[in-house]
Amino acid sequence: xNARRHSPVLDLYAHPTERGEYFDMSVAxxxxxxxxxxxxxxxISPVPKRLVxxxxxxxxxxxxxxxxxxxxxxxADAGAGGTVVRLHYTQYLIVGGLDGECLRTALTADxxxxxxxxxxxxxxxxxxxxGADLDPLFxxxxxxxxxxxxxxxxxxxxFAHAEVGLRLITVPQPHLRVVCSPADARFLFELLSTLxxxxxxxxxxxxxxxxxxxxxT
Amino acid sequence: xxxxxxxxTGEWIDRNEKVSFHxxxxxxxxxxxxxxxxxxxxxxHRTLARSFKYHRPRGVLSxxxxxxxxxxxxxxxxxxxxxxxxxxxxxRYRAVNTWGGLKFDRWQLIRLLAPFLPVGxxxxxxxxxxxxxPLWERLIRRAAGLGRVDFNASTERQPRxxxxxxxxxxxxGAAGLAAAHALADSGLTVMVxxxxxxxxxxxxxxxxxxxxxxxxxxxxxxxxxxxxxVKTLPGYFAAGYYADNSVALVGPDGVLYVHxxxxxxxxxxxEQPAVFRNNDAPGVMLASAAxxxxxxxxxxxxxxxxxxxxxxxAYTTALELQHAGLSISAVIDIGDPATCxxxxxxxxxxxxxxxxxxxxxxxxxRRGELAAIVIRCxxxxxxxxxxxxxxxxxxxxxxxxGLLYQxxxxxxxxxxxQQVVPTTLPDGVFAAGRVNGFHELSARVADGRAxxxxxxxxxxxxxxxxxxxxxxxxxxxxxxxxxxHARGNEFVDFxxxxxxxxxxxxxREGFDSVELMKRYSTIGMGPSQGKTSNMNGxxxxxxxxxxxxxxxxxxxxxPFTHPIAMGKLAGxxxxxxxxxxxxxxxxxxxxxxTEAGTWLRPMSYAAAxxxxxxxxxxxxxREAVGVIDVSTLGKIELFGRDVIALLEYAYTCSFDxxxxxxxxxxxxxxxxGSLVDDGVAARFSDEHxxxxxxxxxxQTVVRQLQLxxxxxxxxxTIIDRTFQVGAINLAGPRSREVLERxxxxxxSDAAFPYLAVRxxxxxxxxxxxxxxxxVGELGYEIHAPANSCIALWQALMEAGDEFGIAxxxxxxxxxxxxxxxxxxxxxxxxxxxxxxxxxxxxxVRLGKERFVGKxxxxxxxxxxxxxxxxxxxxxxxxxxxxxxxxxxxxGGLVGRVTSVEYSPHRGCVIGLASVSSELSTSARVLQVLLxxxxxxxxxxxxxxxxxxxxxxQQAEKPPAAQx
Amino acid sequence: xxxxxxxxxxxxxxxxxxxAGVLEPEPADLGEMSxxxxxxxxxxxxxxxxxxxxxxxxxxxxxxxxxxxTDTIIDVTTARD
Lengths: 217, 963, 81
What we know:
The complex is a heterotrimer. Chain A is of the alpha+beta class. Chain A has helices spanning about 55-65, 105-110, 135-140, 180-200, 205-215, and strands at about 5, 20, 25-30, 40-45, 50-55, 75-80, 80-90, 90-95, 110-115, 115-120, 125-130, 155-160, 160-170, 175-180, 200-205. Chain A is globular and about 50 Å long. Chains in contact: A-B, A-C, B-C. The interface between A and C is medium-sized, with 16 and 15 residues.
């Protein structure tokens, strides 16, 4: 495997799932297609991300992304699933689109710390949770009311005591993208996988997710 | 002998399906839908249990889970409530707490000892002779308690869930259904729960023949079933009320924690027993119990019964039972004779004999079960004996107001109603129905509608406005349904076998307040927690004290309303564990991976023989090169104009002499001057720092730094990178050679001196390199993005192969650092250690204008009470030295061992200890109290134990370390 | 469980927060106060007081005005207001 980057939950996917590379990260591929009628859990950690911080961050983003979310926890839609999230007063998260093109310049800029702008990697695990009704899962994982979830807003809360950032995505059907730390990744993914299976769903792979999203665009 | 009534609509049993089980070895057949007690009663069993203390025969009392008479065990489960447990095929139930079975329970002989077992007897007995106490303890343990615990049983866990709604209605009887119906189309989200498997409450069994009531019930059920905003939860009881209108509901699927914006408590009331001699005999029960049995389960619990009437409801119930086909021979009215005729009118018209102006003397039993009731009536108070096999008590009510108490409501005694009623409730909490002191059906329904109206107004919504009804002007509870008898056995508390005389004894001994009486007599402390006993106890106490009942007060009602199985409380097994990027490598290489807080860390490799593995890894690092995964370190990026101001305030040292691309050791204290955390600060520029913190305190440090930045309005961006960045420590004399192979930057001493920080690409990964010295060898701490770390680690292993590189674990690292005398926060420091006590005074710059802990440190500096010293063990023995072994001097405690290990370098056991300053001189011998009580001498030595010149970790001496 | 209505966050269960109590930054000069008074003395009479509460998932501090006698929250503002 040439990829220098590995998904934090790669080892949880048992054989005979294959390993592939997306966005320069080694990830499980070859899983079943997503059935819109069932729950599904997918590791989408390879989706590229970057952290832009500092008092000059907003200006830099305007210049390089054309998008700056105004309020804390706003998500500025950049197309193809890409977005810019305001995580803290002077911290912004850039999430690339699944097309590999969206926000590319910003995502490939080198680490730097000049003129009040700090560019750093944003390392995490990310999972997609699909299903017509995710409330039963949410209600087991969190004491936070799922009604707080809104499109274009980042909801930072806890799932099973682990800090997560949640985004409600509306295409092709409403679903949840869950960001957590690499350290919590295996714990959380195993738990989500168990819950999804209990509700008759399945765990599958990133390529199946891309196919699903790709169908609509 | 079956006592089943003919089928009726709305019965809860399905006569098409039989259910067969065993009870006390005997086969019993019932119907699907039967509970164990109803199937037993239908089969003619009347004695279903033995009481706790005297092992008296007991039967059904409330048949509503308001009592704990019928407790059963089956397999590993115990304390099964027979009155609410669904009968299942093949079960083999036994009554709890018997010796030799229910029928011939040998413990019943204990009643011969009754005179020696008054209330509180165990406070006064068993002291002397002392040598007999173990015997008493064994006996008491065998006799006490109820069910037996099977320690080998595995617990079935059920996940806990949360849910949210605008209005939670607890109880789906008349008032609850009325409230739910009123809100069904309001747009508000509503949840309705009821502990019974079906909604309806007493509409099923006290108003079954009232067409108006049945129509109301069907309409309400229809409305809530079709509504898209009402969620129904049959079979869920409300265990407790918690902050901000959250209620724990417990049902067959586990615990559901409901966060409601408002709560309507429509939980009804507990019917109360009359107290008279032998009122506990099987056959004596509450009137509502008989009604539930007749209407829900089509069971005739008696051939002919008398009703003890202390209120209007007695007559309603008597008529209902007669309507169901049961025989009521007489109603014994113990209420006000003046008003008897009016309340008894309908019953008399229906041909039921009514005996006014009566008192209960006692019940007679035959073979332990009810045979007759003996009363006194008429102007002569003549005794009259009525043969019967059922006595139904209907003398009063106590609101099931536990949740209202827990919510902080005020519940006061109402002298008109002769019962407690809610008077003031907190915002967002509403009561409706019997729990609110209403007994007439129309009033309960109106009260439910009113509660719904108030709840919706509170939420800013509008449903049809409904006013609260007025309360009844006469009592529905008898003020004193208690008849004392010269020969006793008038039971007040059935769980604990407490009779009236017990309460009088307690009172005579000075336990004359409700709280003291409860704890001394144990009234209300049994499994049913006083639901059918507390109020009568209060009435007795009021009379003894010659006080109004309202002045006595009540004891605090606490969660849970009913017992909850541990598996439901536990919920799903969730254990958060943090794993580093190299976790799989560690497990694949037989590392002994251990929990260190939330992290999983490898202690050593080769789990089979950890002791030799640690020394092998140690030698590896001292002689060649090793790698350790230190990804658990806290890592914080600081960026902005006021970074240095923040660091100067948060940490004890000064940063002005720290050059760019260099690092220094830092530590922080709290306002009391106690050490909180340590780490390394690396400076990139005036506005850009990168600091590390200990694994266990990383989150605390981030939180504190953000706090300081906010308090002082500093312009700093604080980024917690603890989990985003992994770290690998490459250490050993050959470490530079390994690194050279993987990076292009100049890693010579001149270009990359000790304590320097460099950015570099290593094995294709963009990293930060810090030259550190924790383990005392030449070493580099490589910080890299977490998801790239495993590739980096593997590259290091490959590149180091020719030098014999091997991974080393936390245990080896601790030994290596101990030989260098480096302390570990939390190991060699405790919650009160200040820097001056552990040789860190050089890191405190008291001259700074302002920093956390400055004022305390100024006071502490001259005090110098303790010192952290290094020691060597001078005499070996089989008993090892352990951390926290105490150091004793002249019989007094003068210190403790904080770290201790065998040092391969010194060839003996070494360690660190915190001791009184006057004992800290070099070569001083101290006595350590070993775990087995022996003493071992140790000698104070200079630190470090290894490489005092620090030549291993740096080529040339660094600038003198300073604050 | 207690819930807090925070600006920026909405209604959140109290389990998402760390309550840190009344906090003052350490001043350069204590004035009349001794170091021991600064470190150890606290006023615990029932009162309405401003407390610092930390929301871990977002790294945000809030100032909560709370009535300690009734445990009711009167107002919540962000630390940086």
